[in-house]
Amino acid sequence: MTTTSPGLVREPPMEHPLAPFLRMERIPHVWCPGCGIGTVVQCFATALERAGCDLDKTAVVSGIGCSGRAAGYLKLDGFHTTHGRAIPFATGLKLGRPELLVTVISGDGDLVGIGGNHFIHAARRNLDLLVVLINNFIYGMTGGQNAPTTPLTARTSTMPFGNFEPPFNLPHLAASSGAPYVARWTCLHIRRLTWTIEEAIGRRGFRLIEVIAPCPTLYSRLNKLGTGLDGMRSYHDNAVIRHGAETSEVAIDFDGPIVCGKFVDVEKPTFHQLMDEHYGKVLGERYVPMPPSGGMLDGG
Amino acid sequence: MKADPAGVLTGAHYLDGDFACGEGAMAAGCRFVAGYPITPSTEVVERIAHRFPTFGGTFIQMEDELASMAAVVGASWTGTKAMTVTSGPGFSLMMENIGLAAMMETPCVVVDVQRGGPSTGLPTMVGQADVMQARWGSHGDYEVIALCPQSPQEAFDLTIEAFNLAEIYRVPVLVLLDECVGHMTEKVVIPPADEIEIEPRRLTARSPADYQPYALNGRPVPEFARAGDGYRFHTTGLTHDERGYPVMSADCQERCVRRLVEKIRDNADQIVRLEEDGTEGAEVVVVAFGITARVARLAVQQARARGVAAGFVRLVTLWPFAERRIGELAVTARALLVPEINYGQMTLEVERCAAGRAAVRGLFHGGGGVHDPERIADAIVEAAA
């Protein structure tokens, strides 16, 4: 008679449910324990699955920094570009092959610090880009320096006596620059975040989803906010869901509420729609748009 | 392959160098241009913005030159041939993403219509002082190709060649016009499309399962897959392995950088183009490029009339540098004279290649005008004495 101790039974290793969306050979990833970026990548991949995206026609672009590594773990056409230039790089991808779903995942320092000019202009043009901006209030990769999103009074390595520069209110920046879709969640709101990304995939134009993420290694440590789990508790206690809130009223204070929800969701003609309509009107039959499959000439 | 007739404005035209450069790009199959206005280059993109909507090209005026260059690299990864156009200050801003293009091995073309510098300098007046920035402008070790037209006709021809070289070597190729050539109007003959040879974007024939973006498979340059074809590849500006994945090690860095450098250095003889006149038996050889070459040609004739055996070399390709040929001339000639509209950038390179075997003399000009041919002729006579 053979007996098997239940504790020794080894099931064949199950594949990660999101394995088809991830470069599993690159796992473990570079992010610290308690960091929120992996959660966002998981929500993003789940949303791609639920939205039924054609992964062969979906590209992801990142800049530089902790969040800038996201493009390296997603099994899509993935571009890890220069600091601040994820949005203009993505602009080239979208204009070079209009049929692509072009997404950007990057951090606050990358997208609205060094890359702030591109952020507002892409929103103004209403270019067809889905931007997931992971905001951890700090420059993580370089060791905890002040960001344009650091809340007033928060300590960073370059504001050791507390930050005195007013931060950006990102939903307001995006909305007032023209973005037709603007939402914010924290890393605690994984179901809502996933649902929002899924919905935004179905929208057109410049879509901003800001995700507040804990940085236990730097932001939380410098500000004595505890572990990643403590960060989640603070989101639980401080997040307030207010869909349709005036974006001018959703700025984030050091210890105030974090207003979450979908703030803007309007229909607005995109860069491509405006271009096609305008050239169609003024050039008539002379207008030949770039084919959806891109401007590559045959013969290769 | 032959050029797509849609982009080719066949016929004899009276064009300035900027317009001719734009026509060259469209003939070469460029279908994406991102740019930011800057004198004296803007006419290139104005020409393109006017013509693109009628044959499937997209022009976008970006918010700055950083964005323009980044968009060009992004567009090229869709297989669409892409270009940006600028002048000195904008060229400086593009440097980081020119490095990204070199590191990701992205075919693209950057036109720099040089004006006087440094800084804002002389926006409407000529300079040739960006030649070393073209070579060394982005940080790190990499190689680029740079071509230097001397006329509107050549602005057309060499812009096509720039696109072709970009495809063959998967590098950013620079077209270094200068304000004089950019704004000089001359006859430009654009041949029929079926007489223009175009290097197409060659896509890998491998299946996605069998494809690695930076595997060489016995070639000097990796095979290209474009975004949206199911390869689901990764590429990065970080030091990377054959899979395009970041690897932070000295060993991977060595392989990565050496290849970026050697794919150009090892093929320099195929890439370099020179024009020579009377170099055989010359006592003094003038080495010049761009608008200065046109001025120097007259000076060489004047010096010959004054009894000097003067030779003339025009650098059509600035980078990679014509190292081998300049080295040979340093053995046969007594002196090499390098007039240029800067304070001795290419003179340094000629000195390096001459390696003490011939006297090398630079003739400098700060910009805002061209050399007086008499001054060059006097220098030739002096060098022969």
Descriptive report:
The complex is a heterodimer of chains A (300) and B (385). Helices cover 31% and strands 15% of the residues of chain A. Chain A has helices at residues 37-51, 86-96, 108-114, 116-125, 170-177, 190-201, 216-222, 228-238, 271-283, and strands spanning 58-62, 77-80, 101-107, 130-135, 181-186, 207-212, 239-241, 258-265. With 385 residues, chain B is an alpha/beta fold. In chain B, 38% of the residues lie in helices and 21% in strands. Chain B has 13 helices and 16 strands. In chain B, strands 2, 3, 4, 5, 6, 7, 8 and 14 form an eight-stranded mixed β-sheet that branches. The chains are: A alpha/beta (300), B alpha/beta (385). Chains A and B meet through strand 2, helix 2, helix 4 and helix 9 of A and helix 3, helix 4 and strand 10 of B.
Give the SSE layout.
The complex is a heterodimer of chains A (300) and B (385).
Chain A (H helix, E strand, L loop, with lengths): L36 H15 L6 E5 L14 E4 L5 H11 L4 E7 H7 L1 H10 L4 E6 L34 H8 L3 E6 L3 H12 L5 E6 L3 H7 L5 H11 E3 L16 E8 L5 H13 L17
Parallel strand pairs in A: 1-2, 1-3, 3-4, 4-6, 5-6, 7-8
Antiparallel strand pairs in A: 5-8
Chain B lengths: L10 E6 H11 L4 E4 L6 H10 L6 E4 L3 H12 L5 E5 L1 H17 L3 E9 L5 E5 L4 H6 L8 E3 L4 H18 L2 E7 H5 L1 E6 L43 E3 L13 H16 L2 H4 L2 E4 L6 E5 L1 H16 L4 E6 L1 E3 L3 H10 L2 E6 L4 H10 L4 E6 L8 H12 L1
Parallel strand pairs in B: 2-3, 2-4, 4-5, 5-8, 7-8, 12-13, 12-15, 15-16
Antiparallel strand pairs in B: 1-9, 5-6, 7-14, 11-13
Helix pairs in contact in B: 1-2, 1-6, 3-4, 10-13, 11-12
